[in-house]
Amino acid sequence: MRHRTIIEPFRIKSVEPILLGTEEERAAHLAAAHHNPFLLGSDQVTIDLLTDSGTSAMSAQQWSGIMVGDESYAGSLSWGRMESVVRDLTGFEHILPTHQGRAAERIIYGQLGGPGKLFISNTHFDTTRANIESGGATAVDIPIAEGRDPESEHPFKGNMDVAALERLLAAERERVGAVILTVTNNTGGGQPVSLANVTEVSAACRKHGVPLVIDCCRIAENSWFVRHREPGMCDVPYREIARRMFALADAAVMSAKKDGLANMGGFLALRDDALADECRNLLIITEGFTTYGGLSGRDMEAIATGLQEVFDDRYLEYRIRSTTFLGDRLHELGVPLMRPIGGHAVYVDAKRLYPQIPVHEYPGQSLVCALYLLAGIRSVEIGSVMFGTYDAAGALVPAAMELVRLAIPRRVYTQSHIEYVAETFEEVMARRGEARGLRITREPRFLRHFSAHFEPVG
Amino acid sequence: MTTPSRASWAEPYKIKMVEPLFMTTREQREKAITEAGFNTFLLRSEDVYIDLLTDSGTSAMSDRQWAGLMLGDEAYAGSRNYYRLEEVVQRCYGYKHFIPTHQGRGAENLISQVLIKPGDVIPGNMYFTTTKAHQELAGGTFVDVIVDEAHDSASCFPFKGNIDLAKLAAVIELHGAAKIPYVALATTVNMAGGQPISLENLRAVRALTKQHGIRIIHDMTRVAENAHMIQRLEAGHAHRPLRDIVLEICSLTDGATMSAKKDALVNIGGFLATNEESVFEEARNLVVIYEGLHTYGGLAGRDMAAMAIGIEESLDDDHMRARVGQVQYLGDKLIAAGIPVVRPIGTHGVFLDAKAFLPHLPQECFPAQALAAELYVEAGVRAMERGIVSAGRDAATGDHCRPALELVRLTIPRRVYTQAHMDVVAESVMRLHEARSTITGLTMVYEPTYLRFFQARFVRRPGA
Known about the structure:
A: 2 domains, 3-stranded antiparallel beta sheet, B: about 15% strand
């Protein structure tokens, strides 16, 4: 028979306790963390949906790699393994290991960017934007119009607006440092990018001589969507879909903490010899020597194995379908969501959930706090806390959307954990009218969402 | 200086997990070194028999550290391993604030960006490659104020890591305290041959910098090894526990960068520490861009767990006696055989004096680079050049910097190799010493812009 139930294509080999606290305890923890769950201790959290980055459960095969990791400073065998796996997957000649994705970004965007430069993306993620802007360049987002509409059911809402790209390239060619496609598009709701869109973007880039960089940290999940949603792709293996995307680009950056199924690590992959030389110089100064880049040998082993496991048909089926499961449950409860459900997370539209909270009182942050108080669930605001800026008069320039991301760590939580999350949303919906906003009482210069302090309004 | 009796450094541990070594033939090694451009950094680890390239990140972890690895908490924010590590850093080293980084150079990057302004001058007890590179990237200039004995490989002065107070006072006089964001103080001094600084000297440096309101930033990667030498050689400290001396050293400084890959017995990791609230705030803003959120700094939770345990183990007196004892054992063997080495023997390696080993080669023929390459061909032992190639070029003139010391570092990883391995290394160096007149120098055929020693390529000069 054909089952409707999607079971995990693995069983559990090692477990880790989670703590179940009371609502009173959580209220005290949240106050001590200034209403910013980034500042909570992990032992104060019951279900940690803060991020899918670095939080995967590794396989027995990966743990065995941890044990055999070669910690030689230069020429480590584990590097040899990781390099050949990445080269084979991406097709790029030059592979530079980094301690995580943001280091790969800093190195390449440091080379291609600088004051006056322009970077164009389907949507820049928070650390990407910070990297680019701290160097004095400007980051411009041009997702397709449907990508900005939470209710649109467009199958590839991560796509870039090619007409807008053509206009920008025609007008600003000299200033453009690179075009960046993030697959899947995290900020836009974990939405996929179609192979057809990458093909068009690549053609525009090549016509104008601008490098195309793929941020490939969730490229296996993206491949699942391409295979199941894009005409003519249903028989193409996931890995092959990824390879075709890489073939259309000039470089790739990856945080291996996502689809690398690793707890740490990343890489930069490049075609151009001269650019690779420049990047290697920076790599050595800030990250580590070219054959470890700031990673332990054991982590390179884990990445090499993880990058192979992630393209397994049954793994990807489980991964995408289990994320959709949570999305569908919340949808049935009437929770306003970013539709359709993406690959690694469910995004709640806090602006529609809490229409009474104005944008400058951060409805997303309010939901994040409510989920923690009610159930110890840790989530993250992806809205005006993360992306808001101030105009010359000091008024908030809000983000396009006020989302809350429930990111699902890979292979970590079971269906009953997910049921617990869904049940919590029943309560959130019942009490939605009581929700209040927050104001920021303290914020740092960069990436304020990580460490800002809040207090409830009123 | 007394040589400890052999029994005194017997390892205070037994072996629980082993890793195979690779044996190669001379023909294979000849081919491998040619492919690696006569640069030992570019050899593959499977072509190496005994790997003395570095003591950085190459330690054998204890069973407790491996257990810590299994208990790593990989939460993105607020991992309990972070809180535990913070407590250990504060308790063992005494600094108020701490930010984890993926390794030592991550911390160097942060402190250089926070404290150095273009045009600043940073005096220090001899340069280190990555430290100097970060200071220069931030617009500063390094000035060497180490005692003269440090540049003399034959001097047996016990504290060749000391700062020359007259030199430091002259630098302050010349540039003014406002141009000096901090004194960069390393324990021990790697480029001088792993040489320690005395507590007496450090106290005097503290007194002088205090008068002028200048910070001391401590490169503390081998502080426990330095403390061991103080315990052994400096009057009045023989009966103080290692922990106590380490705490005093740290208390005489204002902040620190740490590569935990050395003393702290881990394969990856480091941190920045400071007693200043404002420096901490600024560095915490920067760390999210370069490294990771301040509660993981680019480290897996498990690696923070291993570091917290490793720091405690590194401060054990018996551990340190065995650690330094093994290095001294190798050094004493080579001295007995008449091999020119940096005296006295340092704490983390034995440094061959390539100028004296190969007196027929001028420094332009890269004698230390050549010696390291030939030692590999001879015996499969991988060492590292620390001479003219590592020193790089003078930013102003474009010419090679010509350091007085032209060394090959035989660095001993912690808890990895046995006495028999040390005997093999000693015999290999002796064999090469007998054949030294056949060694021709090298010609550099590829030179990267920064930190050239990592990736430079060479060819052998034709024989006479």
